[in-house]
């Protein structure tokens, strides 16, 4: 049992190190995550990114370099790398955080960047979004700027399957900047309740009325059947 636990802990640590390495090297490519699957002949590595071409490189040169690094530094056996494009990058917190980092590196105004990104997230269909940029934004004293739109869940079961969160740090001339992005993806929460319109509930109301009428008719027939006996008892 202990050996099994060590195996999975070692595997998780290796994946975390690879994830940190890729996030640091390919954040300009909109890096979104990595999935590592071991099979008898080697290891399959799936890398998700907004711009796969920047990770693949010219004629696959970067992929070959990555395969050598994975094998030598991280101990993966015969790594086979596949780069996948993120389906909806505006709903991926990591991609949005990397975009903000790139804009800040280019000298864009932090408040404008946060508002534009929040608007793009909401236009993509998100329920809510929150962007926090911290650091020496305008003065020598560190502070933070928060932009929050829509509904943002911070607790509850729905956080596990609806909320995507990413934290990123970049070093600029004033110092280290922190970027935190929280996106609530379009889905129904576990406590979701919708009040139906009268037109939608019309059939259901008719069914209840018919059922009540049938119950009343059955009770009336029972009373008719019981009335002669009651009359005899009264006569006695």
UniProtKB/TrEMBL annotation:
Keyword presence, rRNA-binding: yes
Pfam hit, one: KH_2
Membrane-crossing segments per the record: none
PROSITE patterns: KH_TYPE_2 (PS50823)
Highest taxon of source: Archaea
InterPro entries linked: KH_dom (IPR004087), KH_dom-like_a/b (IPR015946), KH_dom_type_2 (IPR004044), KH_sf_prok-type (IPR009019), Ribosomal_S3_C_sf (IPR036419), Ribosomal_uS3 (IPR057258), Ribosomal_uS3_arc (IPR027488), Ribosomal_uS3_C (IPR001351)
Boundaries of every KH type-2 domain copy: 18-87
Stored SMART domains: KH
Keywords: Ribonucleoprotein, Ribosomal protein, RNA-binding, rRNA-binding
GO cellular component terms, A-Z: ribosome
Entry keyword Ribosomal protein: yes
Disordered as annotated region, ranges: 216-236
Summary of the function given for this chain in its UniProt record: Binds the lower part of the 30S subunit head.
Family classification: Belongs to the universal ribosomal protein uS3 family.
Self-association state and partner proteins as the record states: Part of the 30S ribosomal subunit.
Name used for this protein in its record: Small ribosomal subunit protein uS3
Protein's organism: Pyrodictium abyssi
């Amino acid at each position: 049992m202990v050996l099994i636990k060590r195996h999975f802990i070692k595997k998780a640590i290796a994946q975390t190190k690879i994830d940190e390495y890729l996030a640091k090297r390919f954040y300009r490519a909109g890096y979104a995550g990595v999935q590592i699957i071991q099979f008898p002949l080697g290891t399959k590595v799936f890398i998700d990114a907004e711009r796969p071409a920047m990770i693949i490189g010219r004629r696959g040169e970067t992929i070959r370099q990555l395969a050598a690094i994975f094998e030598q530094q991280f101990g993966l056996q015969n790594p086979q790398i596949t780069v996948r494009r993120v389906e909806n990058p505006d709903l991926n917190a990591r991609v949005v955080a990397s975009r903000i980092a790139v804009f800040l590196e280019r000298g864009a105004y932090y408040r404008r960047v946060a508002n534009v990104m929040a608007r793009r997230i909401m236009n993509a269909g998100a329920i809510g979004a929150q962007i926090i940029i911290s650091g020496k934004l305008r003065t020598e004293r560190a502070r933070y700027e928060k932009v929050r739109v829509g509904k943002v869940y911070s607790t509850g079961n729905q956080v596990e399957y609806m909320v995507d969160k990413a934290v990123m740090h970049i070093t600029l001339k004033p110092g280290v900047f922190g970027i935190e992005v929280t996106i609530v993806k379009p889905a129904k929460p576990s406590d979701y309740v919708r009040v139906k319109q009268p037109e939608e509930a019309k059939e259901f109301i008719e069914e209840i009325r018919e059922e009540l009428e049938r119950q009343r008719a059955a009770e009336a027939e029972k009373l008719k059947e019981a009335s002669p006996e009651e009359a005899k008892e009264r006569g006695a």
